[in-house]
């Protein structure tokens, strides 16, 4: 069974980009934006400021990225791999995609340039862009984890806004050490999608083709949540 999900999202823009886009957002409009993001059922937003080096590496000219994060449904995630599961995951993805257009339209209306980065654009890694936010980490099971949850999906808006609240340091690096001692995903993967050194092998993973979520469901970050895992880790390290 090979099922491709996440069909391309149609263009839902209702408002054109401004001819002379603004590049500074006021606190009031930023608060309004965050409120809108919550109203649309996203967790919240993270922000990536892309360096010249990063842009050259990927051949892009984007500077400022808003990452809209949503929680992938637990009800869908806990289903057995199946066509039905893939269809439901895609439906959820499409619904949040439509809302991401509405948020970008709001920004256009406020005078900013706002374009959605195509979620299926293979030429650029959305994860690499997400990592530039210093607000997430790639787990050993290759999930792009934010503190809010392990099962986070996201859309990205490229914008002219230069003064977003970018983070300059990533305080989630400890997860790499935690993962290297854990290895539950490596041991329990039904497809053996990890090499001899325990490194993830994308080609062998069936998450995006058949809807496997086993490693997510078994992961301590999914079961207990980021804060609890961190607290336990720090206690063990003698930090607390
Ligand atoms: S199961 Fe363990 S090793 Fe795998 S991603 Fe989760 S914490 Fe990391
Ligand atoms: S999603 Fe499934 S196949 Fe992919 S790494 Fe996790 S357990 Fe293995």
From TrEMBL:
Source domain of life: Archaea
InterPro entries: 4Fe4S_Fe-S-bd, 4Fe4S_Fe_S_CS
Signal peptide per UniProt: none
Pfam families, per the entry: Fer4
PROSITE patterns (UniProt xref): 4FE4S_FER_1, 4FE4S_FER_2
Domain 4Fe-4S ferredoxin-type: 170-199
GO terms assigned for molecular function: oxidoreductase activity
Protein name: 4Fe-4S binding domain-containing protein
Organism from which the protein derives: Methanobrevibacter millerae
